[in-house]
Amino acid sequence: PEDYNVEIRHKLSNQPWLLTFLRTFIQIKQRMLYIWITNINISSFDCYNDEDGLSHWRAAPDIICFKSDVLQIVGAIIAIINLVIFFSLSAVINITIFNHNPKNGGLLSCPNGTFASIQNILLFIIIFVMRMFYRWPFWRFLLSFGISVIIVFYLVILQPYYSIMSNFLSSIQWAIFGSMRLCMEIGYLFQKQMNNYVPSIIFIFIGAFLSIAFLVSIYYILQRRRKKMLFLKKGQPYINL
């Protein structure tokens, strides 16, 4: 078996295009399906309480959670097992498979998979919070917005990718998500008080402009931070693309 593994590694090392294809395929598949798979599994045990205190399955309100339907109970158990396996597998993939190209830089090239793993964990928390904290809008907003801010700060201060553009591109989704969450929650509060959808629409546009302002600020802060890091960094310099 050891000789076989050595032979496989030797063949892969002589086929860089194959390594690039496998790495790209796994990353794209994980990014595209991660949220969808997590949501599907959470739906199996996503329940809510009615006025009488009974817990109903959100996918089928006529079913009492973990009581009246055997299929729902079995499905929920399988979903929890799937989440544990999928989450663990994603963490291992993020740690072991990443684009490491310090010589030539490259889009999303990084020295290790630490940031990808942290981002994966925080993304899972956001999905869970958005689904399970439906009746607690304040905590839902606080956690989702707070996680977005943490990730953006991580990208700006630590800059896990070799190039500025890679750090900036990674921060775009979180800056937009955080800005829109902030404005949509404020708009939702006004909507409840005024019983009108107009405030929500207005704050969506405000969130769009706020996202643009944040992205411009993030780009300039990344550049200033990178200059300081170049002066303070000892050893191999960062690559600025």
From TrEMBL:
Coiled-coil portions: none
Record field: transmembrane: 73-97, 117-134, 141-162, 197-222
UniProt keyword annotation of Translocase present: no
Swiss-Prot/TrEMBL keywords: Membrane, Transmembrane, Transmembrane helix
Superkingdom to which the source organism belongs: Eukaryota
Protein name: Uncharacterized protein
